[in-house]
Write a sequence for this structure.
């Protein structure tokens, strides 16, 4: 669990970053309608959660360095007995101050009245423009009100600064408490992948495996998937973001599962691929071995000071060499790499940052230069090879083999630590589990 003192520390660090002329405005996620009266399960906006720990909707956090009356102001829902009977207890304004460390808390319907005063005298507004027009409009309205008062000597803000430059840079380096939660998320997911391998049999539906994985997540505390799970057998193993998950698994199929739970709002993201009947065919094995070797090379490239692109460079070299040996790519290594010939079979990146969001925030390039890895960053390493039926120039025996292997990797001072290492990926381990 992240302690309230850690959320307070983040706000303090943020205030130091933006200086006394800045102000931060962050909106809670709006509830998302699924249809009619039914909403999707509520999930707090990650920046908002990162700075407050507050998980209710209809809230706005203001962080105003050096403000005399208090630097952390929360606008949130009022207590309301009738509504709480339907949707559960609320913190209210008293709870916001007492349990979430707000210096001041106001009912959310006072936001538009109070916002102009809070922005007065500030030069930079740190805010993510463009995600919700209603939030943007509220802020613009407050700015317009301020501009109307300029003749009385009031100063209105001069610029907007995206949270990419501040909060997202902070979110990129995980604290020990965050790493502990991410390790737990990865452990739950790894155990669920192992379980899916152990129970998979031809004749099952892909959705049966999804159900088993969901069950394993939930009984171990991973209430939600971090993203829509992918359970693709046969040709569906070649669809990168397949999520129909509704086909009967056949005897000779390969099965690709990309599923990760969220644990206390922190994501895991694991992919494992295995033969439906428990034994890799020669072609499945050949492709799998290349992807595994590429993934191990990619993980080895994860260490402090390595450039972000080092992981992909290591991967594409192994994949190109492997596909040349299988005669699925023809030519010379150097020119095949230069032409990016591998994109016929491996068409995505090596991975992404992982954290509160599954595709977590943080820049990979800064001023046209690849970012260098630092201890505390977490990224996925997820090479794949995909050969759907109909792939030009590829003999039939290779068709409908899609293999991806994905792990969650923490950069440590001495190299890296694979948080998802409990999910088996060596061929002999997978076959032993499936036949055991
Ligand atoms: N699960 C989505 C991804 O691997 O990026
Ligand atoms: Mn991923
Ligand atoms: Mn994934």
């Amino acid at each position: 669990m992240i302690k309230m003192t850690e959320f307070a520390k983040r706000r303090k660090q943020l205030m130091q970053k933006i200086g006394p002329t800045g102000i931060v405005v962050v909106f809670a996620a709006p509830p998302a309608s699924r249809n009619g009266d039914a909403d999707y399960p509520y999930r707090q906006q990650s920046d908002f959660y990162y700075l407050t720990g507050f998980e209710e909707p209809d809230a706005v956090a203001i962080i105003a360095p050096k403000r005399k009356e208090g630097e952390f102001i929360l606008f949130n829902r009022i207590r309301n007995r009738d509504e709480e009977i339907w949707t559960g207890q609320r913190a209210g304004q008293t709870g916001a101050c007492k349990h979430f460390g707000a210096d001041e808390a106001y009912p959310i319907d006072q936001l538009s009245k109070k916002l102009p005063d809070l922005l007065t005298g500030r030069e930079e507004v740190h805010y993510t423009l463009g995600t919700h027009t209603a939030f943007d409009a509220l802020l613009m309205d407050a700015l317009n009100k301020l501009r109307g008062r300029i003749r009385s000597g009031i100063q209105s803000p001069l610029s907007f600064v995206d949270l990419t430059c501040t909060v997202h840079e902070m979110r990129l380096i995980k604290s020990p408490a965050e790493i502990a939660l991410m390790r737990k998320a990865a452990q739950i997911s790894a155990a669920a992948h192992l379980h899916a391998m152990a129970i998979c049999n031809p004749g099952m539906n892909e959705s049966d495996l999804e159900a088993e994985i969901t069950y394993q997540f939930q009984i171990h505390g991973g209430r939600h998937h971090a993203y829509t799970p992918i359970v693709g057998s046969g040709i569906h193993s070649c669809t990168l973001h397949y999520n129909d998950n509704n086909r009967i698994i056949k005897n000779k199929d390969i099965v690709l599962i990309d599923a990760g739970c969220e644990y206390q709002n922190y994501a895991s993201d694991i992919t494992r691929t295995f033969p439906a009947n428990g034994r890799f065919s020669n072609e499945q094995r050949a492709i799998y071995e290349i992807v595994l070797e590429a993934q191990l090379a990619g993980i080895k490239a994860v260490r402090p000071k390595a450039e972000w692109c080092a992981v992909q460079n290591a991967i594409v070299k192994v994949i190109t060499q492997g596909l040349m040996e299988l005669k699925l790519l023809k030519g010379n290594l150097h020119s095949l790499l230069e032409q990016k010939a591998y994109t016929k079979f491996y068409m995505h990146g090596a991975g992404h940052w992982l954290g509160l969001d599954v595709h977590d925030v943080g820049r990979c390039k800064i001023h046209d230069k690849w970012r260098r890895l630092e201890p505390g960053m977490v990224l996925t390493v997820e090479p794949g090879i995909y050969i759907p039926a109909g792939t030009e120039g590829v003999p039939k025996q290779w068709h409908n083999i899609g293999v991806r292997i994905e792990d969650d990797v923490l950069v440590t001072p001495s190299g890296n630590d694979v948080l998802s290492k409990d999910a088996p990926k060596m061929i002999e381990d997978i076959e032993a589990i499936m036949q055991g």
